């Protein structure tokens, strides 16, 4: 009788340990996603200032500005938990920002402008922060996914509604391509 009770207590403690590990992994992934979201919001807030600075020098490039604003708004409209949708929208926004900076290359006065230089440096810093946040999120998502899929954790995870997280990945092959540099 005592042996049976001891086995039941040991199994219950093991289930609690697995459950708590799954909760911790899920919270780490959600906290990591929050970090990405904060950095993406900072970038979205910086874009209007950048556009206004460039507009003064290249007002005839209206389509480029409109595209950046449209893609910024589109990225902001992606639902909170849609990791793949957000990754795709942010990738397109990154491409449009690249076009904006390429446009700035054609205007030496703009490149020399202090505000533009500061905004460009801020955006570069933000892109580095976003990259670090993505890596952290993908690591947290990987840890959760391993726990959710591993035996015997998968038995507990299925019973308590734990599910895998999507990775924040580059979905556009053009973003993966090595840029060509011509002098």
From TrEMBL:
Q: What is its main location?
A: membrane
Q: How does it sit in the membrane?
A: Single-pass membrane protein
Its annotated compartments are: Membrane
Q: What is this protein called?
A: LemA family protein
Q: Which family does it belong to?
A: Belongs to the LemA family.
Keyword Membrane assigned: yes
Taxonomic source organism: Neorhizobium turbinariae
Coiled coil location: 109-143
Q: What InterPro entries does the database record attribute to this sequence?
A: LemA-like_dom_sf (IPR023353), MamQ_LemA (IPR007156)
Arranged from A to Z, the UniProt key words for this protein are:
Coiled coil, Membrane, Transmembrane, Transmembrane helix
- Keyword field contains Transmembrane helix: yes
Q: Mind telling me which Pfam families this protein's record contains?
A: LemA
Q: Which Gene3D superfamilies match?
A: LemA-like domain (1.20.1440.20)
């Amino acid at each position: 009788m005592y042996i049976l009770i001891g086995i039941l207590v040991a199994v219950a403690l093991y289930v609690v340990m697995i459950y708590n590990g799954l909760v911790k992994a899920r919270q780490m992934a959600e906290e990591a996603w929050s970090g990405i979201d904060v950095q993406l919001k900072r970038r979205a807030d910086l874009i209007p200032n950048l556009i206004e600075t460039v507009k003064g020098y290249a007002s005839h490039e209206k389509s480029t500005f409109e595209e950046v604003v449209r893609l910024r708004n589109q990225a902001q409209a992606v639902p909170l938990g849609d990791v793949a949708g957000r990754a795709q929208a942010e990738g397109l926004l990154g491409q449009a920002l690249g076009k904006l900076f390429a446009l700035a290359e054609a205007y030496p006065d703009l490149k020399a402008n202090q505000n533009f230089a500061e905004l460009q440096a801020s955006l570069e810093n933000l892109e580095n922060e976003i990259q670090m946040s993505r890596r952290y999120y993908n690591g947290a998502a990987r840890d959760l996914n391993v726990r959710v899929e591993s035996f015997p954790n998968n038995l507990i995870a299925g019973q308590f509604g734990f599910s895998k997280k999507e990775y924040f990945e580059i979905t556009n092959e053009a973003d993966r391509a090595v840029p060509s540099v011509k002098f």
